[in-house]
């Protein structure tokens, strides 16, 4: 995937900068041509000479180098790069990237570039949790050009234990490879559902579930970054809607069913990731129900969207999800056939560190032709790409 690809590695001023030396080696092992640019702060941690020796290319550090800027070097380098990796990316650099600040070589170069960018944030865990940092990350994540690799958890150089470590070098290399995937969904209409539904008890209260919508949003973004026309039907979520995608916001299972049915005919593939409520209150009180002793709820089944599409799916790929507490594979397999799906992703929700309300996920993928693949613990964005890799070939198979 990386053979002869031109990769610009941007190193910013964090202690993890030393790990980027290894990253240069591994990228070169894969056949990439690597050039390095460093911020001033990064040069306090590792010398440019180290990166020059490892990459075999001169290292850029200054926007005002008479020699390097003779031919407007930062623009030339921006045109040269097939992909950019910023590792480690400090909170300060992420803030500059999110707001288009160009006040040194690396930030100016980034603004002038048009190729895909992988950002590998690494910082103190409190900085990582900071509101401003999160807002900046979200701004960048809205662009299909930027991919953000979730930092790893563990002991941090500052003495804290938490999230903020630069992920293992092999994970970064795998993500860089991901930047070069073809636009293999180009021209395809992909319909994704995401998030929970809310079933109202009255105008204040509702029944819902722990889904945040992250997995479905990641799938929608991944499909878009691979060239698809994406429609995303989502339940209530605090996530910002992805850009470049048709977003349809719904609340109840009934609304989600109506929208999904209406959009289904136009799609080549439906990825039914939404955690649709299985039950809704039989009665909804108008206004706010007043307290009076106990409240015995009567619930009734909601419409099963996937089962309703079973006979209408000819020529379309339909993918479901199964969040299970136990016997994940067996239950997922059962749902695959019961709901007439082409593929299903089963994930184990008994582990607290993944799935619902988490930024990472793991699972198992099965298709009706007998293929089976394990999806180890990874960011939801990586998992989205892995799922798309597996289901791409089904588009041809369902036509046969
Ligand atoms: N699903 C659906 N309509 C519903 C409920 C679920 O289309 N009313 C879809 C989900 O989006 C998911 C798949 O069906 O892709 C499996 O959802 P899940 O809740 O795990 O399955 P259920 O059929 O509801 O089975 P159970 O809750 O009994 O495990």
Could you walk me through the main structural features you see in this protein, from its secondary elements to its overall organization?
The chain has 400 residues and is of the alpha/beta class. The chain folds into 2 domains: 174 residues, Rossmann fold (3-Layer(aba) Sandwich), CATH 3.40.50.1950; 211 residues, CoaB-like (Rossmann fold, 3-Layer(aba) Sandwich), CATH 3.40.50.10300. Helix content is 32%, strand content 24%. The protein contains 14 helices and 19 strands. It has an 8-stranded mixed sheet, with helices on both faces. The protein has a 5-stranded parallel sheet with strand order 2-1-3-4-5, sandwiched between helices. Helix 12 links the parallel strand 16 and strand 17. Helix 1 runs parallel beside helix 2 and helix 3 crosses helix 5. It starts with 5 loop residues before the first strand and ends with a helix. The mean pLDDT is 92. Cytidine-5'-triphosphate binds next to helix 11 and strand 16. Cytidine-5'-triphosphate (CTP) binds next to helix 11 and strand 16.
Regions with little confidence, pLDDT below 50 for 5+ residues: none
The figure for the number of domains is: 2
Question: Structural class of the secondary elements?
Answer: alpha/beta
Overall mean pLDDT stands at 92
Q: What would CATH call the architecture of the largest domain?
A: 3-Layer(aba) Sandwich
Q: What is the CATH topology descriptor of the largest domain? A: Rossmann fold
What percentage of amino acids are in beta strands?
15-25%
User: What percent of the residues sit in helical stretches (DSSP H or I)?
Assistant: 25-40%
Radius of gyration: 23 Å
Q: Order of strands across the widest beta sheet? A: 12-11-8-13-16-17-18-19
CATH class of the largest domain: Alpha Beta
What sort of overall outline do the alpha carbons produce when their principal axes are compared? Answer: globular
* β-strand number: 19
> How many H/I helices?
14
Q: Distance N terminus to C terminus?
A: 30 Å
Bound molecules: cytidine-5'-triphosphate
What profile does the largest beta sheet have? 8 strands, mixed
């Amino acid at each position: 995937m990386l053979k002869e690809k031109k990769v610009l590695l941007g190193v910013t001023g964090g202690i993890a900068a030393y790990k980027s030396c290894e990253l240069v080696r591994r990228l070169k092992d894969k056949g990439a041509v690597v050039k390095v640019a460093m911020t001033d702060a990064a040069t306090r941690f590792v010398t440019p000479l180290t990166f020059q020796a490892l990459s075999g290319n001169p290292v850029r550090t200054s926007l005002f180098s008479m020699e390097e800027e003779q031919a407007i070097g930062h623009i030339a380098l921006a045109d040269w790069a097939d992909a950019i990796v910023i590792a480690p990316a400090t909170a300060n650099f992420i803030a500059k990237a999110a707001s288009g600040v160009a006040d040194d070589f690396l930030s100016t170069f980034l603004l002038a570039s048009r190729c895909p960018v992988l950002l590998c944030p690494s910082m103190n865990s409190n900085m990582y949790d900071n509101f401003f940092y999160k807002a900046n990350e979200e701004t960048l994540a809205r662009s299909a050009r930027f991919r953000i690799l979730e930092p790893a958890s563990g002991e941090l150089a500052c003495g804290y234990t938490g999230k903020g470590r630069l992920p293992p070098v092999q994970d970064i290399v795998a993500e860089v490879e991901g930047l070069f995937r073809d636009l293999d969904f180009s021209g395809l209409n992909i319909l994704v559902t995401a998030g929970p539904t809310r079933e109202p008890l009255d105008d204040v209260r509702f029944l819902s579930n722990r889904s945040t919508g992250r997995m479905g949003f990641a799938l929608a973004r991944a499909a878009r970054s691979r060239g698809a026309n994406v429609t995303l039907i989502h339940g209530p979520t605090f996530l910002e809607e992805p850009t470049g995608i048709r977003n349809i916001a719904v609340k109840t299972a009934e609304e989600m069913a109506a929208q999904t049915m209406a959009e289904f005919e136009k799609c080549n593939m439906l990825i039914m990731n939404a955690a649709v409520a299985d039950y809704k209150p039989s009665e909804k009180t108008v206004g706010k129900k007043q307290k009076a002793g106990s409240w015995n709820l009567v619930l009734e089944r909601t419409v099963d969207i996937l089962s309703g599409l079973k006979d209408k799916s000819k020529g379309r790929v339909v993918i479901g999800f199964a969040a299970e507490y136990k016997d994940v594979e067996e239950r997922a397999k059962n749902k695959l056939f019961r709901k007439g799906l082409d593929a299903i992703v089963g994930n184990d929700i008994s582990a607290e560190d993944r799935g619902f309300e988490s930024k990472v996920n793991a699972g198992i993928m099965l298709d009706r032709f007998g293929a089976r693949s394990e999806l180890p613990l990874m960011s939801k964005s990586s998992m989205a790409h892995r799922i798309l890799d597996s289901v791409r070939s089904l588009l041809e198979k369902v036509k046969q």
